[in-house]
Amino acid sequence: MADYMSEITKKIKDRSLFNEPLSKYTSWKVGGPADTFFAPDNRDELSQFLKSNYDKPITWLGNGTNVLVRDGGIRGSVISTKKSLNKIKKEADNTCRVEAGASCMDLALFAEKNQLGPAAFFSGIPGSVGGALTMNAGSFGHETWDFVESVEVIDQDGVIHHLDPKDFTFSYRTVKFPFPLCFVSCLMQFPESEITTKSELKSMRDQRFKTQPLTEDTCGSVFKNPEREHAGDLIERAGLKGYRIGGSSISTKHANFIVNEGNATSENIEDLIEYVQEIVSSQFDVELETEVRIIGEKLSVKNK
Ligand SMILES: Cc1cc2nc3c(=O)[nH]c(=O)nc-3n(C[C@H](O)[C@H](O)[C@H](O)COP(=O)(O)OP(=O)(O)OC[C@H]3O[C@@H](n4cnc5c(N)ncnc54)[C@H](O)[C@@H]3O)c2cc1C
């Protein structure tokens, strides 16, 4: 046991990255450095890392498809589940256990192969299942938590807990946790009567390609849809399609997407978000709330 623990400690030390640029891990391809960046290979490494970093702030990162990391980066440790903890296993007829680092696309493909469903809606969400649980990600009329039976989580002291959906409060793209935690896996149960089919996967993909700028660097929908409205419609009606600040612009294909044209900074994108909020508020008296999470520190003036 002592040997095993010292091997884990050595692996953690060898694989911790310092001052690691987070632009490498976000779909917008922007974001300053993390003081420490760590991608665990398994639960023991994750737990041990947390135990030895209990005194530092922790930020979780999945596939980085719903975060705007500011240019000054993130103090403390960033833990990424992107390349680990990604197994999916069928448990019983209509249930499967999915680890948090699995991609939503892999979950949809697994469901199609194993005749589980309806899970085709996961296929167009480029995030991890951990990110989808955090955001209650959804599309085409379904949301992640519609199918969650239980979750395995780890707290900031490295202790694993098993929780039920009733321990959380969730609504449209919002989940309130009972305490600060990281999702490790979840048990999903799908209704017996429905399955995921290849043709559904194809038609959802085709529909997305038609309406969304999927070949560009974006973070999906920037704003939540206000009640009875679509954020994209309001932004388009405000005449903002194509509007740009620095290297960022409002997509001409879908007005709720902001595109990094290649040289945007986080500051450009955040300024554009605030500009859109200001214009939509003044024209329609609607306050747009971001779906994207803005995290980290702004660059100090001396570092600009
Ligand atoms: C082209 C495109 C299309 C998209 N379409 C959709 C869509 O149809 N529907 C939709 O809902 N979203 C959509 N999104 C947004 C995004 O993919 C989802 O919100 C996704 O669930 C985020 O997952 P992630 O792994 O990328 O999370 P990240 O962006 O890495 O993180 C998001 C939040 O979750 C937290 N987090 C991540 N992993 C964990 C974990 N294991 N435990 C605890 N907290 C964690 C992070 O700290 C952060 O606060 C789209 C994005 C893009 C780029």
Overall description:
Helix content is 27%, strand content 25%. With 304 residues, the chain is of the alpha+beta class. It has three domains: 2-80, Uridine Diphospho-n-acetylenolpyruvylglucosamine Reductase, domain 2, CATH 3.30.43; 88-189, Uridine Diphospho-n-acetylenolpyruvylglucosamine Reductase, domain 3; 213-295, UDP-N-acetylenolpyruvoylglucosamine reductase, C-terminal domain (Uridine Diphospho-n-acetylenolpyruvylglucosamine Reductase, domain 1), CATH 3.90.78.10. The strands form six sheets. The chain has a five-stranded antiparallel sheet. Helix 1 (2-15) crosses helix 2. The chain starts with a helix and ends in a 9-residue tail after the last strand. The mean pLDDT is 96. Residues 27, 59-67, 81, 100, 124-128, 130-132, 134-135, 137-139, 182-183, 212, 214, 218-220, 293 line the site of flavin-adenine dinucleotide. Flavin-adenine dinucleotide binds at residues 27, 59-67, 81, 100, 124-128, 130-132, 134-135, 137-139, 182-183, 212, 214, 218-220, 293.
Chain-wise SSE layout:
Layout: H1 2-15, E1 17-21, E2 33-38, H2 43-52, E3 58-61, E4 67-69, E5 74-80, E6 88-92, E7 95-99, H3 104-113, H4 129-135, E8 138-139, E9 142-143, E10 148-155, E11 160-163, E12 169-171, E13 174-176, E14 181-189, H5 198-211, H6 231-237, E15 244-245, E16 248-250, E17 258-260, H7 266-284, E18 293-295
Parallel strand pairs: 2-5, 3-5, 4-18
Antiparallel strand pairs: 1-2, 6-7, 7-14, 8-9, 10-11, 10-14, 12-13, 15-16, 16-17
The structure holds flavin-adenine dinucleotide (FAD).
